[in-house]
Design brief:
With 397 residues, this protein is of the alpha/beta class. The chain contains eleven helices and 20 strands.
């Protein structure tokens, strides 16, 4: 596996390795599985993997669209030279929409007022703004409520005929697609189909109708429509643990740190703040020099809400003991004395020999999305490429 360029210099000893080959592979797998267009979601700095590198890799892997949450993220993508359609959906009244409109970014509107605001923000001489309409089908978050659909679609069609905007898509978002048997999934899909019928009756002919997120892209063929939006699955993590079969996704992130210290403990010795864990036997412990200041969840502390989180020290699983601190945490070495500087894998793909992000999510009582998105802080991020292992190196693609 060949190392390529860093995008963030670290201020501490921890590092995040991102495999661009895995990202490209996952994009290919998801597009083939869904059998339709792929919208690669790269918001929140590419779920912690680096937004620009993730976007480039996804495009090479066959992604047809890119998607970001905010206008600012979308404009950064365009300014970095990424071509093709880009969708964003999260704005507030103070958001300056003009740069996104000028860059040909597809904005999302939830209401007639937002459509009018987009038209008013269009710079002189700019192309007709591209807009997608989001409808709330049951998530009760962003999107037009059902009782406003007819009015929104009528206003959208009228403005499109007048050349004020171009409606490029209609979309919604599942609330429970990671639970395939949940009755909300059927209700939301039926509601989305009703919205599409109303839009058609109003005279709208969008090029893209999309509902499925990662879990639905894999588990719900009826919801794939014209495209699927894949975020967490693009990064190789299971969008519905316990429900999805192995389709060949490869986790793209590995988090490492060097072992900083090894020491002996006697029975009764307490570890870390509050002494929430006390040695019940003579043992050895190791110091890992990263902590919640680097995005390591404090909920990984032992005892935690579930089983103790683990790391791998030179390939052997070791449990965290005591509280995770801002800069460091302690692991039980069980009497072994690995060398200071030994490789510690917090999480990564199974091939890295340690726990996975899903293992950490279960130990911390959260989801794998949060584990990979929050990690970072002072850690350097390095890009590797498993698909060009014999190459001498090069630019992150």
């Amino acid at each position: 596996m060949t190392a390529t360029s860093d995008v963030r210099a670290g201020l501490g000893p921890g590092r995040i390795e991102v495999d661009l080959g895995a990202l490209r592979h996952n994009a290919r797998v998801l597009r083939a599985t869904a059998g339709t267009r792929l919208i690669a979601v790269v918001k929140a700095d590419g779920y912690g993997h680096g937004m620009l590198a993730a976007a480039r890799a996804a495009k090479v892997g066959g992604a047809d669209w890119l998607a970001a949450a905010t206008v600012e993220e979308a404009v950064v993508l365009r300014e970095a030279g990424l071509e093709g359609p880009i969708l964003c959906w999260l704005t507030v009244p103070a958001t300056d929409l003009a740069p996104a409109i000028a860059a040909g970014v597809d904005l999302t509107a939830y209401s007639a007022a937002e459509l009018d605001a987009i038209a008013a923000a269009t710079p002189s001489g700019a192309e007709t703004p591209r807009v997608q309409l989001k409808v709330d089908t049951g998530l009760s978050r962003g999107g037009a409520p059902a009782d406003a659909w007819s009015r929104l679609f009528a206003h959208a069609a009228e403005g499109e005929r007048a050349g004020r905007w171009r409606i490029t898509g209609i979309w919604s978002h599942f609330a429970c697609s990671d639970e395939p048997g949940h009755p909300a999934n059927d209700r939301q899909e039926r509601a989305f189909r009703r919205a599409l019928t109303l839009a058609d009756e109003a005279g709208l002919r969008p090029e893209l109708r999309h509902l499925a997120n990662s879990a639905a892209a894999v588990l719900r063929p009826s919801a794939r429509f014209d495209a699927v939006r894949c975020g967490i699955a693009l990064y190789g993590l299971d969008p519905a643990p316990g429900h999805t079969s192995d389709i060949g996704l490869v986790p793209a992130m590995t988090v490492r740190a060097p072992l900083a210290m090894v020491k002996h403990l006697a029975p009764g010795d307490g570890v870390s703040y509050g002494h929430i864990w006390t040695a019940d036997r003579a043992t050895t412990v190791g110091l890992v020099p990263v902590g919640y200041g680097d995005g390591v969840p404090r909920h990984a502390s032992s005892p935690g809400p579930a089983a103790s989180a683990e790391v791998a020290v030179d390939g052997k699983r070791r449990p965290i003991r005591g509280r995770v601190c801002m800069d460091q945490f302690v692991v039980d070495l069980g009497g072994d004395l690995p060398a200071v500087g030994s490789d510690v894998v917090l999480f990564g793909p199974p091939s890295a020999g340690g726990p996975t992000a899903q293992d950490w999510a279960e130990a911390c009582g959260t989801i794998n999305y949060e584990i990979v998105t929050r990690i970072g802080g002072r850690m350097a991020r390095t890009y590797l490429d498993s698909e060009i292992a014999d190459a001498p190196g090069g630019e992150a693609r």
